[in-house]
Write a structure and sequence with these properties.
The chain is 45% helix and 15% strand. The protein is of the alpha/beta class and 477 residues long.
Length: 477
């Protein structure tokens, strides 16, 4: 049994234990600590530093992106009362983002600092505001900023994330979102998956690798460290996928420039000045703007390519694409010095079809490959995108897939013949392939006809020509 004094002692301990457990399980201590820190901050002098998205010359502030990457990695952001959740580059990745007007705390070298995500006004874009005690400023500021660069570069290097930027309209810019919006580039294309001539692919890779090592060389000869490419060929030949493959090969971001959203030449220059280094700047279907009456002039596009404003930043790749033949592009845009490399993306020949069959169907040899070569003897007529769709739609049966390709090639040749009203293609490419047909073989949704249907179609064309000749023969029999 307890004595009276012991009973009174234990009776007094119980409320203390209950109160301590209550404090530990609630946020009372955290609230009290935050109040004391706030009281201490009010009694000290602070210095504030603003890190804007754009500098005075409307160029993107490199420090802003570094600070953004650093702040989003802070443990204090995870412990904050509110934060944004966003999907990452991986399929199931979730990342935490700093919200607008949110304040996050950080500690460096025993000094407490705070960052505020400030919302931009008009076209100025946003900014991060650093608040640090004046007593700690001289001791901490420079080492702290160097630490931000080091940590953010390590994060970006480990993440290896390539981003796609698109120029926004005037409404978005006026709302303080800046002129460029971005998102992670999740396109799966790589240099290994791009189907093109192997020698040409190796030459491009060697050219890009040499470019990466040529900074001192470019400076020695007095040129801006950049490279320009012109990709030309029919639609669906893989130009856009090749740009993605280039970006992943270099580890560069992509800036997709939509000239239809650009008001005039000055606006185009401002957009270019707000792009960052280590980037690929793409203008697709450039030939459409050479003859259009849009706000951007032809001379403005040329200055964008190699004028003084194009030298506002280094380590950039300029890529122009066109779906027309090279002769359709103005010679002023393709002269030496303005375009460094020209790459042709042709329609499918037999080698390309075999490469696509290997990628889509997993086959290296097939009995119908000779028939594919025979069908293409009159010349390429299908784009890699068209062939890829046929192979994908019939991927469960390689024979059916290759027959679909052969049928589509012949249909395209018939349509081209009818449209041009030229001579019938060579007899070799029109020989029947009944021995390759199987009962019940199907074709994909493009409306590809069987060989017998093509025979009927050709017979109708010949009958029509004979009737027209008879109708025009007005002379005596």
């Amino acid at each position: 049994m307890f004595s009276d004094s012991e009973f009174v002692f234990y009776l007094g301990i119980v409320p203390v234990v209950v109160i301590v457990r209550l404090l530990l399980k609630t946020s009372v201590l955290r609230i009290l600590l935050r109040f004391l820190q706030s009281l201490e901050d009010k009694c000290c002098f602070h210095q504030s530093y603003r890190v804007p998205l754009f500098d005075g010359s409307l160029r993107e502030n490199r420090l802003y992106r570094k600070v953004e990457t650093y702040l989003n990695s802070l443990r204090s952001l995870e412990d904050s009362e509110f934060a944004n959740l966003a999907s990452g580059t991986g399929e199931n990745d979730v990342v935490i983002r700093l919200d607008r007007r949110q304040v996050v705390q950080d500690v460096f070298m025993s000094a407490r600092v705070s960052w505020t995500n400030e919302v931009g006004e008009g076209s100025e874009g946003g900014a991060f505001v650093l608040r640090i005690r004046k007593d700690d400023r001289k001791r901490v500021l420079q080492p702290y900023l160097q630490n931000i660069f080091r940590v953010s570069e390590e994060i970006e290097r480990n993440r290896k994330e390539v981003r796609l930027f698109v120029n926004l309209g005037r409404e978005s810019a006026a709302a303080g979102m800046g002129r460029w919006g971005s998102m992670p580039l999740t396109h799966p294309a790589t240099m290994d998956t791009v189907v093109m001539d192997l020698d040409q692919k190796n030459k491009v890779k060697a050219d890009l690798e040499q470019y990466l090592k040529s900074k001192q060389y470019y400076h020695r000869i007095g040129r801006v460290w950049r490279r320009s490419y012109l990709l030309y060929g029919p639609p669906g030949t893989g130009k856009s996928s090749f740009v993605v493959a280039m970006a992943k090969f270099l580890g560069y971001n992509i800036y997709d420039m939509d000239l239809s959203r650009v008001r005039d030449d000055s606006d185009l220059k401002a957009l270019l000045m707000q792009t960052s280094s280590r980037s690929i700047i793409v203008v697709e279907d450039i030939d459409r703007f050479f003859s259009s009456t849009a706000g951007v002039s032809f001379s403005g596009v040329l200055n964008f390519m190699d004028g003084i404003v194009s030298g506002c930043g280094e380590e950039r790749i300029m890529v122009l694409t066109t779906s027309s033949v090279l002769d359709g592009v103005d010679i002023a845009a393709t002269r030496p010095g303005r375009i460094d490399v020209q790459i042709h993306f042709p329609l499918c020949d037999s080698a390309t079809v075999k490469a696509l069959a290997g990628a889509y169907l997993g086959i290296k040899e097939h009995k119908l490959f000779p028939n594919v070569e025979e069908a293409l003897r009159a010349g390429p007529s299908l784009s890699p995108a068209h062939v890829g769709e046929l192979l994908q739609a019939n991927r469960n049966s390689p024979s059916r897939a290759l027959k679909a390709v052969i049928g589509a090639v012949r249909q395209a040749q018939v349509e081209a013949w009818v449209e041009s009203k030229g001579t019938k293609p060579g007899s070799g490419s029109w020989r029947p392939i009944d021995e390759a047909r199987e009962p019940g073989s199907g074709f994909c949704r493009e409306g590809v006809h069987t060989v017998s249907e093509f025979r009927k179609l050709c017979g109708l064309f010949r009958m029509g020509n004979r009737r027209r000749d008879d109708a025009l023969d007005l002379g005596p029999p």
